[in-house]
Amino acid sequence: MSLDNFKNFVKENPKLANFVKNGDMTWQKFYELYDLYGPFHDIWNKYLGITTNGVFSFKDMFNVFKSLDMNEVQKGISSLQKGIGYVQDFISNRETKESDSKKSSYDILLEIIDKSNCCGCHACYNACPQNAITMKKNELGFRYPAIDKEKCIDCGLCKKVCPVLNKKKINNKPIAYACINRNDNIRKESSSGGIFTLIAERILDLNGVVFGAQFDECLNVSHSYIENKEELYKIRKSKYVQSNIKDTYKIAKKFLDDDRFVLFTGTPCQVEGLYSYLRKDYNKLYTQDIICHGVPAPEIWQKYKEDLEKQKHIKIVNMNFRDKSNGWMSYFLRYTDSAGKEYYEPSSKSRYMKLFLKNYILRDSCYNCAFKNENRISDITLADFWGVQNINKEMFDNKGTSLVIVNSEKGNELFNSIKKDTNYVKTDLEEAIRYNPSMVKSSEKPYNRKKLLTELRNYNDFDSVIKKYIPKENIFKRIIAIIKNVIKAILNKIDKLLKKQKR
């Protein structure tokens, strides 16, 4: 009998696992019985709970084993040993609360990684060879994997490519820079210092492909790619909504297999998802992630957009979360209606931005992010360099300054290729992180988040929810906080000067 047939027999009869777990049998003995008698013999009645008039004892089993042709048995054992690890791994991960329950590989995965940990990176979706996995939206619009058990072949690949279950240990020596694009027009159209545009243009100049997040016609956010500079505007700027990765990992792999340069940009979990999916290094792959506060709920964003449209009796066709007309530090939300009229909303007064920055509408996994650390798998990390005015005043003009963290040799190579078009200053990484703690620290979950979301979904009344759950900021507390930060910055500089003098 073939080993594959035996494996199918085991999957169809999970009750056999109980005898192995109790120490009454081994998989090797079961395979020998299967090889000798086949799957339909009465010998299996005892183990499958089938009632018979006869009794089969372990003494009988011993007598059977004595009569076996050991040469044939050895051949069977040899074949078994090649696949015994698969069978044991398959069975050991099964829960046997109900002995006759059948679970796919992905059922096992979902037991290990619940929704509070799943980051929605789509690695499992892209990797499944049977297209058995779909990404289904919950009530907030966040996507989670679901398995079609009829299509699933229990290959376990979904588990192998999960970046949360298979967290990579990275030991690099990141170097941080304060950086500004010398082209003020580009910087004006960018969220911070305009460095992403330079990096993307470098890859495009090499006949490469750049992946990033963009709006569709309904202002949903999803990942796609561009192949020319004229389309850069689509993936430039921050989009405060979780992006739907869809099948872009597959598409990126195809470009790489065709020997094209690829720049893949996204959140840390999306970049790690890509690497987990690929499972090999590509010389022409470059990656760039961001310092991420957390990803907001797509459905809440759509509700907010619809609320704006209802209030103003318009159809919104374009959204800029980071308009810097009033400066980098006090940016606006700028949206455009179908008639071309523009509307401006200060970020400090935006109901959506309050929900986002107060951590109410983030994905569950963002409250315990597995990817927040100094050592990242991406080649380059980009962010707004908040606090740069306290570290290096020369790099602050309120037009936008980028924090560039080079994580790898490839990242250093890429950054060196664009330096000539920038003003940059090397900076202390720990000092940069002090003003940008989201690099290493997860967002804190509000204790009343569940209540707020329930009311927001049921009543779709942003104004009343904001008034109820997010009180107005005390201006005096804000001033005190600013003073404290200034004092800390001054004391830190004094401490550094004293250390230099001691040297």
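The record above closes out task 2.4. Task 2.5 opens with a second protein, given below.
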Amino acid sequence: MRLFFTRLFVSERKQIAMIADEKSPARISHRIFATRSLRNVGNGMNEKSLEVLKQYDFEVNRVLRGRGGMILNTDRGVKLFLECVKSDKYYERENDITRRVADSGFLWVDTYVQNSSGEILTPDEDGRRFYVKDWYEGKECNVRDLKDLCRAVQTLAQLHLVLLEVAGEFSGTTEEQNEKDVKAKALSGIEAGGETQLRLMYTRHMKELKLTGNYLKNKKKKSEFEQLAYKNIGGFFSEAEKAVQLLAGPQFQERLSYAKKTGELCHGSYNYHNIIFSNGNTAVTNFDKYKNECQISDLYQFMRKILEKYDWDIQTAYKMMEEYDKIIVTAPLQYLPSYFDATEQEKALFAKIDYERYDVTAITCKKGTYYPDMSGYLFDNMVPERLGHLMVFYHRWKDEPNQVLTTYVLRNYKGKELKTYEEAKKMAWDDMKLCGIDIDKCVYERKWYYFPHVFEKDYADGWYEKVESMQGQLNTYYAGEIMSFGDMEETVQYSKDLVARFF
């Protein structure tokens, strides 16, 4: 879907410029901390409210106003202290999503801090409820700095990958949220009455463009602006027609259905106020409006707000889309067509990848029998004629006498018949006995596809040169074992070099 959504946005651009109705000045904040008095801090918070913090396992060193509450410098990092103004379920819902996002590897989110009772909401003596979140000292994304914008879009792409991992667990929204998201639904394509609100909105605006064009056509005396508008409105209308056609097409409808079926998640309120650059990291905050819908809506909403401030500069739009759409593929490339919209060239080249088939077992030895104190390499078995025999048994730790031993057997070789799993296992264990090792039991076994490679003819035909020439096409990059060698050091070094070359 990477190409479809790019086309969709471009076809909308000029129309959006004509119908944009959300004009807000740029608001750039470089400071998290303010220096005003604590009296009457948002929502009636004051010094008395701080008594609640005694129920948390941290020490407060400094308290300042900010973000609608109090920002706390503590011995456990920066925190944000706020009073509850919504239902308990509202905060519980956000806590669930931020916790799962953090657990899945995206650590820089404003997760809730539990009090001494293990709760995220803490009442005071008057019955008011408060909460504490992890926070970050830094600056908001600067909408006038293209580097900041690109960094924000890169972060969004990373966040979306994590949200895909937790998809399905948080589909749907509360009734409270549904009521507050009516406008957002109109922009994101939520289905209503058999059609999408997005299509209905664009159809309505297209009709408005037509009426405006007819009005200008029939006006005899036109101002300079009206003359320019009439001259260009036909192009705007043509772009609007293309956008409506795409929204009505089966591809868009299928994409919406897929998002609903899989529980695809987006942030729901990804804007520069919710992006904080802190100590070389990018924090994403305020997940309370997350939704089960197409993730591309996050990018659309972010770019729409930004481009309003850039006079709808198409080059700025292209730059942000490019940053979002960059993909580094490190998974086995021969399987890429099964999970990716691979091109014909990708399919043809990656179908040529082969690999070695190893069987790996972890075994224990019978008590009282010989137990090796180091690894063993059977070089006489590392020839085609000894296919299926034990090649290596691995002794990992020098100071652990009762550890498992790991055995390695190769089951395939070019020009040789593939050994079955059972016969390879028997030969390996017989070889262990010849080494004087009496096996007790197998505690783990795995079929291991190792050392991806191409054959001599494909190598000579320039397979690697062809793949390298594809690096960066469609903003896609290839790394991993096939692009270097089967050891950790070589693979990491290639990946570092890839980033240095292209990023």
